[in-house]
């Protein structure tokens, strides 16, 4: 192993002797490269590092070095590996588009739609995109009504609104459809009467005829025919049960999971209006009546539209409902009477993003107003999410929330969004470090989380490897020892093997003392392997988090507060054994202080800080 002692001495002298700036910078630039023994980590170390993949390179100088040194030490020009070219292609950039009559596909709410880009370690790219809620976006409204006895008058009110309802909905969007379902209670004891006669007609006490108790019935699939909806409501009959709690969650579960029967459109805003004057049963309550099986989150509707497994499966839990509301992007407006509103308010705390609670007059006379305010509340929230969590690329969001000339603040969520507003977003896409030194890619879908339909797709090329990785270098006179293979001009040990001749299994903790000695920093008082902050595997240190260097003798560098990346990221500085080496124009512990001073001048003026105060790190202080 060449030059490690030299490396330490250099680091030492550079920082202790405070060589004149430029010389120091050159030395640091060299140091950043030469400790790397593999192509991928070499090119990832800094933008000026090159790797010599020439198998015939015979110089004792490091293979990871600057261009000039590699040429002068005899590396074949053609075999010098350079960083890959950056990629930036806007692959789809259709303009924002409101709903056109008769073609739901024409709607465009997010622009652009697809970008191909590359990221190197410690690199951040900023992607601007805009979002505008489309006018006349389709609305699917499913009216889920409590049809227990006490809601009899509410049904009549709804029927009386047959002219006003379409007028109101037309005011919200040109494209609406209505569906209808009703719920009561699981038809099992103790929720209903034991008495045979009362089972068939649970309203016999009221001396009226009504339907046998059921949990949920789907009456009408989503349709744009308002009169069909009114007719269905008018011809539906009430029922009754014994307790004051009902099967709202059973009903919601079926409405969510029976997408085909309900008729939910893939491109629509989906809202369930659930009206009730009763409390609701949740998971566990079903056991009282023998419905002991955990709710299976499946659709069980018979031909007539009844939920026919109500006596088998328990009520769903709040957590199950929450997950499915998110999955199917359905919002619920709970229109409930004063006596039970508090109960629904606490439910709203748990289902916050997807629900709205409003007070329903005892005869439902304010239902129209309530639908309007509920709808407006739901559409006024815009929130973005993405699926990047499993990969190495991280995304942060900044937005002006549609305020003209407003400041960009870090947030995904905007409230108070009205039609016609365009929200400007900026996604900061960053790769803070390579997980592995190989070329890979990650596809990220950024979508509005309330609707979940429009999206911006990022195809990120992760530049952590080298082009020469896959090259077959066969006919070489040079052969590699067992447990190793030729990669980019050098023999690299296979996974699980290490040591100078790849004959030491990293599982084997009983490595030779000779190898152990290689983990100790020479000529220091701390003669502990890997400085006590790493494991010595076959003579190589596997450092704990926060340490680096051959002997784990270096702490990791300062993280920039501004972007969360070590030494400010690509273009600002690199980490050299615990100290950031800043590029020209940058200074500070984490290289996040710019020497630019133009940002301090008042617009139009060229007086720094208008003559008062200092310009520090590009900001007026
Ligand atoms: C360590 O010290 C010994 C003697 O004290 C010296 O011979 C050797 O060159 C030193 N090693 C390095 C890497 O400086
Ligand atoms: C997309 O096109 C618009 C013009 O319609 C342009 O202003 C915008 O910069 C483009 N977006 C990107 C990311 O290139
Ligand atoms: C429909 O909207 C207009 C103005 O936007 C308003 O004047 C009217 O009252 C609304 N009608 C209903 C039924 O809400
Ligand atoms: C509702 O049904 C009754 C008969 O059951 C009928 O007389 C009435 O006209 C219907 N109302 C509407 C709005 O269809
Ligand atoms: C482990 O080391 C001991 C001496 O330290 C030696 O006797 C033994 O053979 C080694 N075991 C293996 C599996 O290498
Ligand atoms: C601002 O920066 C420029 C170039 O970096 C320099 O020439 C100029 O003197 C600076 N102005 C002040 C007032 O520091």
Automatic annotation (TrEMBL):
Keyword terms, alphabetized: Cell adhesion, Cell membrane, Disulfide bond, EGF-like domain, Glycoprotein, Integrin, Membrane, Repeat, Signal, Transmembrane, Transmembrane helix
Superkingdom per UniProt: Eukaryota
Membrane topology category: Single-pass type I membrane protein
Annotated GO biological process: cell adhesion mediated by integrin; cell migration; cell-cell adhesion; cell-matrix adhesion; integrin-mediated signaling pathway
This protein's GO CC annotations: cell surface; focal adhesion; integrin complex
Signal peptide range in chain numbering: 1-21
Pfam families: EGF_2, Integrin_beta, PSI_integrin
SMART domains recorded: INB
PROSITE patterns for the chain: I_EGF_1, I_EGF_2, VWFA
Family: Belongs to the integrin beta chain family.
Protein name in the entry: VWFA domain-containing protein
